[in-house]
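A quick aside before the break. I want you to see a complete sequence-to-structure record at least once, exactly as it would be stored in a machine-readable document. Don't worry about memorizing anything.
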Amino acid sequence: MKKIIILLSTIFLVISCKSSYEYGCYYFTILSDGTVRFDGVHEKLRETISGTFYLPKKIYGREVTQIGERAFKDCKKLTDITILSTVTEIGNDAFYDCTNLESVTFEDPFGWKGKKLKLELNKYTDKKEVVEEKTYMLTLTNPKKNAEYLKEREYEYYCYWFKEAASGSPSDVDEENSNMQDTTYRINGVSFTMKPIAAVKDAVIGDNSQSNNKEHIVSLSAYYIGETEVTQELWQAVMGNNPSNFSGSARNPVETINWYECIAFCNELTSKVMGENHCVYKRNEDNVTADFTKKGFRLPTEAEWEYAAMGGKEYKYAGCNSEHELKDYAWYKDNSDNKTHEVGQKKPNGYGLYDMSGNVWEWCWNWWSATIPSDKQSNPKGPASGSNRVLRGGSWLDNTYSCACAFCGSYKPDIRSSIAGLRLVCRP
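That is the input. The structure line, written in tokens, reads:
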């Protein structure tokens, strides 16, 4: 048996300088030629993905061309995988320990047309001990007529794992995200940048250590989120005042604002930048309704905030996984000197977002609730009513525990505090 290593490359569009990202439940790396290598699926979903997986043809409008080493490790319920014509390389051990994989179908492979090749998948444990050997059929369809790379040979593939991060046809996997890029706005001489977050299907958020935010699954439409917390200078440019307790720098986050004032700010900013018809919120005394089909600026939902804070990683805090590292990413009780600091001074998380842990708590849309839905949720907005609105991220006054991505705080919506500010979200 001849051994061939075929690499699968994944291509993806990126606006930032980073090369490694998470797209929904996918992990991927941006290659030097601007394409993407598909590196795998979120660890928490490895044992839940089953049936047929369609590798996406594009991510953020760029083609997927490679599958990395061990990209599908331990996907034991995966039975079939379809790989589109953009893929040219499959990494070593790409299907490691896929014990139920029966077929791999190439839409447009290396010169083969209507051929069926013997595909032997050697099953290994982590100790590389042979557990089982089976013969499967590798089906090749619609090949390129001028390609002659493959001949009639037998190929040995080592199983890595793969998971289904998005369902449906590969042609429509990332249609919603194809034109998203960093967007910078300017109002009255003050600039602010919104960062794109791709749509995600069946993302795992929450943490079982949190009594009111245990692990649960959500799907989110694509959205933009502020690169930084709203600054005092931006608030001043929009509202004509600065309510903040800490006034050392115009680049410090605005604070000492209640939830209702955040709603008013979002609408005022939308009116000045996009026009009044794009405003999301309507208020009648204490009753506030939101039209989430509008493209105007708004507060993030709790799920949008947490998914963005995680930064494409399974980190406890926004940018890191340990208390020792947190000082590099956040202003909190141990390093803040009991005050806020200019935004963007610490390291960003994986999505290029600053201060999502620490500096100031950030108001969210949701009413606070002690219960989490047990079923999967799509674009959850939280309960219809309540007494407190959700705050996320911790602040300059808080300990490390409160700075965790999964930690939920809350205030009555009319409360002002020097530990509470906001971060903007809007639709593509």
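Two observations worth writing down. The first strand starts at residue 20 and ends at 23. Helices lie at 232-239, 259-273, 302-310, 323-326. We'll return to this after the break.
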